[in-house]
Design a protein that fits this description.
The chain has 9 helices and 16 strands. The protein has 329 residues and is an alpha+beta fold. Strand 13 and strand 14 form a beta hairpin. Bound molecules: ligand DP6. One of its GO terms (molecular function) is ATP binding.
């Protein structure tokens, strides 16, 4: 096609992905489960440049260098290898999510890039193959290929080709209308990348193995609760899984702490809401922001309370769609 455009949305994990058993292939230790959001999409255009001798990346209007350029080029190399082609490309990407804020811009970014690049280089991939490809860019991107609730299988480490066994797929039997209320406490870049923080956690936290074991049980219970439409059960498992992940980081050496006193204030308020009888549970990623999980019917009430106590930007996100092509204009 020479040129292709794709759009993808971020996702927030309710059972977290934290820690890689294979860094190169981006194979995780545990299965994870997320909700793809309907806010903050990333739009990415890939155009092949037969005469260029290097890839070019333009992110939100600025020429990318350093880590963003390096990761994008490495990803394009992988696509070229799969397609058996050599042309370089220009990648133009537009985020609507505050970068580095723990709102998973790498998930929407690599899901959109995987779809656009595959198309531009003439690869025709099935959904699971596309998810596996997106995974190589950023683990959480494997899940943003799909909409709604999504499970990412860690895969079988003993399989002849473990790469083939680790992909995401939609949870088709979920009967729950849930929203995530994002409390944007800080939209700045994070001090420690999630890549580095994961590495440190796996290598040094005495709690890590236990959290992985718990995550397996959490996932099975959450799938049942999703099928039953049991909001409270889904919420309790999600909050506990997220707090457990942060506990593994706190006990790494050197410790990684993404949560701030402002995050703690929000966590306290979420508990207060529960005491008042409102079903609300917290989840946090590699940053200070807190996302409050609740039934969609309660989302505006929860958001109003969060605005009142924090005074910061609060965004209500509902279930959103998977990655899709956009026609080139
Ligand atoms: C805390 O997918 O950003 O958001 O694979 O190294 O690119 P890399 O990491 P990334 O990590 C996401 C971690 C998390 C939890 C999650 O989304 O499951």
């Amino acid at each position: 096609a020479r040129e292709a455009v794709a759009v993808a949305h971020p996702n927030i994990a309710l059972i977290k992905y934290w820690g890689k058993r294979d860094e190169h292939l981006v194979l995780p230790f545990n299965d994870s489960l997320s909700l793809t959001l309907d806010v903050f999409p990333t739009t990415t255009k890939v155009r092949l440049e037969p005469d260029a001798d290097a890839d070019r990346v333009v992110m939100d209007g600025a020429i990318a260098r350093g880590e963003v350029l390096r990761r994008t080029t490495a990803f394009l190399e992988l696509v070229r290898e799969l397609a058996g082609r050599r042309e370089r490309a220009v990648v133009e990407t537009r985020n609507t999510v505050p970068v580095g804020a723990g709102l998973a811009s790498s998930a929407s970014g690599f899901a959109a890039l995987a779809l656009a690049a595959a198309h531009a280089y003439g690869l025709s991939l099935g959904a699971a193959q596309l998810s596996r490809l997106a995974r190589r860019g950023s683990g959480s991107a494997a899940r943003s290929v799909f909409g709604g609730f999504v499970v990412w299988h860690a895969g079988d480490p003993d399989a002849p080709d473990p790469d083939h066994t680790s992909y995401a797929e939609p949870v088709t039997d979920a009967r729950l209308d849930a929203s995530l209320v994002a409390v944007v406490l800080d939209a700045g870049p994070k001090a420690v990348s999630s890549r580095e923080a994961m590495r440190r956690t796996v290598a040094t936290s005495p709690l890590y193995r236990g959290w992985v074991t718990d995550s397996h049980a959490d996932l099975a219970r959450m799938r049942t609760a999703l099928r039953d439409g049991d909001m409270a059960c889904v919420g309790e498992i999600a909050e506990r899984n997220a707090l457990g992940m942060h506990a593994t980081m706190e006990t790494a050496r050197p410790a990684v702490r993404y949560l701030t006193s402002a995050s703690t204030t929000v966590l306290d308020e979420v508990r207060r809401l529960r005491r008042e009888g409102v079903g609300a549970w917290a989840t946090m990623d590699a940053g200070p922001n807190v996302k409050v999980l609740c039934a969609s019917a309660d989302a505006e009430q929860v958001a109003a309370r969060m605005r009142e106590v924090t005074g910061v930007l609060v965004v209500v996100a509902r279930s959103g769609p998977g990655a899709r092509h956009e026609t080139v204009t």
